[in-house]
Amino acid sequence: MKGFDPRVSVVFPSYNEKDNIVEAIGRASKALGKNLFEIIVVDDNSPDGTWKIVENLKNPKVRLIRRMAKGGLASAHHRGIHEAKGNIIVWLDCDLGIPPEVIPRLVEKLEHYDVAIGSRYAGGGEETRPWWRALLSTCINHWARLFMGSKVKDYTSGFAAVRREVFDRIDFTPEGFGEYFIEFCYKCIRNKFRIIEVGYSYGARKGGLSKSDGNKFVLIKLGLQYALKVIKWRFTI
User: I need a labelling partner for 6 at 20 to 30 A (CA). Which of 47, 100, 153, 215 fits?
Assistant: First the structure.
């Protein structure tokens, strides 16, 4: 597309990420260079002071949204996306399980696509977390593809670059954990947006376990919630 000029807003949700947030911001900034428009950190008043670290950076391209009550992952993404001012919006976790260096590979695809998804299941992608964690993700994605089609391989990615105008036509429910991404993908399919997946290697968060990885019971409960919502969205969207 002639004249493609990405001005990228990066959204990082955060909760108790003091050990990762500065590195995540620095690596994303370096990876995007002149194409970076802003980084938005949506922090749920982290007890470990993540929000204070971001505030003290005093970087004009870094904007802090400090929410005084923990609102959850989906609502953090929703808030950041809808406050972003760039013509391209990227969102990902700031725990460094997703390498920020992959962001430009997604952004460049938007010259010809509307949505670029970072995918563990596309060519060149891999899942390097513990086998039981990877198995649950695989099962959920097989279930989603069964009901929603195989246009998307990684319905639970949580890592995407999207043209701003996509959100003029669709939205997602700002509730829950990672299931919002399944809803988002299905609405993109239903609205016939041009979607591409970019394979990358997903690993364990830097410095320990993610908010859900440490508890198998929580993971199974989340998986069941996702499965039920897949059925709901298939017949209501």
Answer: 153
